[in-house]
Amino acid sequence: MAITAAQVKELREITGAGMMDCKKALTECDGDIQKSIDWLREKGISKAAKKADRIAAEGLSKVIVDGNKACLVEINSETDFVAKNDQFLDLLNTTTETLLNAGVTTLEEANKLSMKGKTVEECFVDATATIGEKITLRRFVVLTKNDSDIFGSYIHMGGKISACVVLKDSTNAEVAKDMAMQVASMSPSYVSRAHMPAEIVEHERSIQEEIMKNDESLKGKPEKVLQGIVEGRVSKSLQEMSLVDQIFFKDQDKKVGQVLKEANTEVVEFVRYAVGEGIEKREENFAEEVAKIGA
Fold first, then answer.
1. Alpha carbon of 194 to those of 71, 189, 201: distances in Å?
2. 58-186+266-274: CATH, from 3.30.465.10, 3.90.220.20, 3.40.190.10, 3.30.479.20
3. For 3-12, what is each residue's pLDDT tens digit?
4. What would the pLDDT profile of 45-57 be if each residue is shown by its tens digit?
């Protein structure tokens, strides 16, 4: 199949690999982006495992806590300038407060809620008309906790990243805040390895096995030794995805799990919103540059 400039551009942004390598990977993998990412990793060209860097949309996120409920919201705009507009900020605040106790779980339900005498959807249409940019409610979530638990929340860069965690059976506000900051800064995917789906672990193991096959320095080593190397690499790779296995940002000699154990608590759940994550960037004229590497 023909590989397009847009595909090469996307893979390059995700992996940081060169254009020729990206085009070759896409050609080998019939244009499948995820398989191409794995192909580049297996060849030692890229270590990218996630698409978190594909952050393009502007806007802000927010988290508020009230009693046993917490609400996180993300609202997008077309430019960062508009996200600083007073009307935009008022819309963000009002929407978050409305959703906190509304008892809805989907965007469809949220858009039908009453807010300032109109529906939420109508408020966003009005904001789009008066601000002059498309303003959208992208996502939201409401977390709940038990009376004995505690929320920790953190908003970074004025709302570019928002995080909230629930600590079990704790009143330690400092640790709760630290955990929210850890989640915001280090972007874990799961609380622990035990929370990871088996297919995630197996996928990483298959990647590491392929990397090992391409490592000339490991040729001829006993199978038992090779398996140990694979498991060690899998563990190290998955460490970044597991909150409790991450290095604690305040103390490089401790892991998050140790900090939680010393505080006699554990993380029940967490949510992290980074504005625009996963949204495609606007297309640029990239075709001419890609064409230079050959058809």
1. 26, 12, 10
2. 3.30.479.20
3. 998 888 888 8
4. 764 444 334 333 7
